């Protein structure tokens, strides 16, 4: 007996024997390690009580099965010393003597707690993933890219180093790869988003049908991201629905190493059509506001504009009467008359130009970006302002850096910003009775940007200059408080920024930054 115990002590598995009543007869070393209970403390104790053996089925039933069949195996939970729970894979065998009397029950047990916990965690994570996949408001597509990968790999051997440029230049090849990418799994949300009712309207099909030509750049980005082992990609694009419509989506690709190994791309799509529609509506409202503000500004500047137009008209009248005086001479000096006629033409053009600019300001049309000289826009805005500023005795200073790069912008909108800032400054200075009112326009370049500064020496902007950009903020009796918010929305639509600060000494300083062409 003693000898056998010694051998059992060499075994890694827990081996415990018990009598017909469940009292422990032997307890090997692996059992001491597994349960944290010394042999001396275990011998003679009731095994199931000592270890709080538990199973879904009552232990008495398990014992009954054991006695009936001679053996039992399965998973049990027990509590080791110190209360640590253990999950065990056990085998029980009944040993009988020649007369069939039960000699003892032999139990071998393996600790599977760690494996079970890991399995549970994995199952839980799979369950969570499934839940997410099925129930999220995000459409998910699993796309099998193995075929596409096979098409892209030879490109490297052909010496293609810039995959991005290559795919852009070879759209037929690109289109061909789409026919080799197949939709695997997809969730109900994706089905709904793409206007399908049955899985097989999408599943198993190539992605080509869902990808309009104008969205190919996003597909290229996704391929390049895969090939260059970027972990994910987030962008926006527009895809085809099965019912012939289209859907604007926030498009995310997860390129985890696991997915890469499986040749699968997990694509998440969020429907942003509503947001896109709202953005377009907002742009229209902004454009209408900007238009209304321009028209009301022109109203304020009528005197200034009338004066600008009157000047060339008066000059035309003067040149005209001078010409007719020359012609009534007996021997008219035709050169003199020709010179006057040329001046009349030039002045008429000038008047025409001014009217064209006023009309452009009053017109309602889609903004159009062209490369503009910031300095020229400042000069044109001053055309609108010159008379008004003169009337208020505001001195104008120009600090315009020559030879600046152009900025891609809408001329009328940019003029509107400048006129607005200048009119605000002139009004603030008049209101505050600023002595020697002064307005300075500065242009300069700064890195990739152009900077325009409009400064005055008026009362300044108080403690919270940023508040001026809030809609309907005004300190004027007849003010609308929309001038600066419109300026900001115009500048931001141009990819720029506008900041209001108090001047170093006094007055206000508005700094507009715009991207250079
Ligand atoms: P409104 O001109 O209709 O009041 P704005 O949005 O153009 O609307 O201007 C908001 C407010 O900002 C003005 O009422 C004025 O109090 C303040 N403000 C704007 N420019 C200046 C400036 N240069 N100096 C002082 N205050 C200014």
UniProtKB/TrEMBL annotation:
Entry keywords, A to Z: ATP-binding, Kinase, Nucleotide-binding, Phosphoprotein, Transferase, Two-component regulatory system
PAS domain: residues covered: 1-67
PROSITE patterns found in the cross-reference section: HIS_KIN, PAC, PAS
Reactions this protein catalyses: ATP + protein L-histidine = ADP + protein N-phospho-L-histidine
EC number: 2.7.13.3
Positions of the PAC domain: 70-124
NCBIfam families named in the record: sensory_box
Protein name: histidine kinase
Source species of the chain: Sphingomonas rustica
């Amino acid at each position: 007996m003693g000898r056998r115990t010694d051998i059992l002590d060499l075994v890694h598995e827990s081996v415990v024997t018990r009598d017909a009543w469940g009292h422990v007869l032997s307890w090997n070393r692996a059992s001491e390690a597994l349960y944290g209970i010394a042999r001396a403390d275990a011998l003679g104790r009731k095994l199931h009580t000592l270890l709080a053996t538990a199973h879904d089925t009552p232990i008495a039933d398990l014992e009954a099965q054991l006695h009936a069949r001679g053996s039992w195996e399965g998973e049990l939970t027990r509590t080791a010393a110190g209360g640590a729970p253990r999950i065990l894979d056990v085998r029980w065998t009944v040993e009988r003597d020649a007369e069939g009397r039960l000699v003892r029950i032999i139990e071998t047990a393996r600790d599977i707690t760690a494996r079970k916990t890991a399995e549970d965690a994995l199952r839980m994570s799979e369950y969570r993933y499934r839940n997410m996949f099925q129930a999220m408001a995000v459409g998910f597509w699993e796309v099998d890219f193995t075929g596409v990968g096979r098409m892209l790999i030879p490109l490297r051997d052909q010496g293609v180093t810039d995959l991005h440029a290559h795919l852009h230049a070879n759209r037929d090849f690109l289109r061909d790869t789409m026919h080799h990418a197949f939709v695997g799994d997809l969730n109900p949300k994706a089905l709904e988003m793409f206007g399908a009712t049955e899985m097989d309207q999408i599943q198993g099909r190539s992605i080509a049908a869902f990808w309009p030509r104008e969205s190919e750049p996003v597909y290229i980005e996704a391929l390049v991201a895969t090939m260059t082992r970027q972990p994910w990609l987030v962008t926006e694009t527009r895809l085809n629905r099965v019912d012939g419509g289209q859907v604007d989506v926030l498009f995310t690709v997860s390129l985890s190493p696991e997915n890469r190994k499986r040749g699968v791309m997990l694509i998440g799509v969020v429907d942003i059509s509503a947001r896109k529609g709202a953005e377009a509506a907002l742009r229209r409202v902004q454009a209408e506001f900007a238009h209304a503000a321009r028209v009301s500004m022109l109203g304020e500047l009528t005197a200034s504009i009338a004066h600008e137009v009157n000047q060339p008209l008066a000059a035309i009248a003067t040149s005209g009467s001078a010409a007719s005086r020359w012609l009534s001479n007996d021997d008219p000096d035709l050169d003199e008359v020709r010179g006057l006629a040329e001046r009349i033409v030039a002045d008429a053009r000038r008047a025409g130009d001014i009217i064209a600019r006023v009309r452009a300001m009053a017109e309602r049309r889609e903004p159009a970006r062209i490369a503009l000289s910031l300095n020229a826009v400042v000069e044109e805005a001053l055309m609108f302002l010159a008379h008004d500023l003169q009337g208020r005795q505001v001195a104008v200073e120009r600090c315009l850096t020559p030879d600046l790069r152009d900025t891609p912008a809408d001329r009328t909108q940019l003029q509107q910003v400048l006129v607005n800032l200048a009119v605000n400054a002139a009004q603030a200075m008049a209101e505050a009775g600023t002595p020697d009112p002064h307005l300075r326009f500065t242009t300069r370049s700064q890195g990739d940007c152009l900077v325009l500064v409009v400064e005055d020496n008026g009362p300044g902007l108080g403690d919270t200059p940023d508040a001026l950009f809030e809609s309907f903020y005004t300190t004027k009796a007849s003010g609308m408080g929309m001038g600066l918010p419109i300026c900001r929305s115009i500048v931001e639509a141009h990819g720029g920024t506008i900041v209001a600060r108090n001047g170093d000494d006094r007055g206000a300083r508005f700094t507009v930054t715009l991207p250079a062409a």
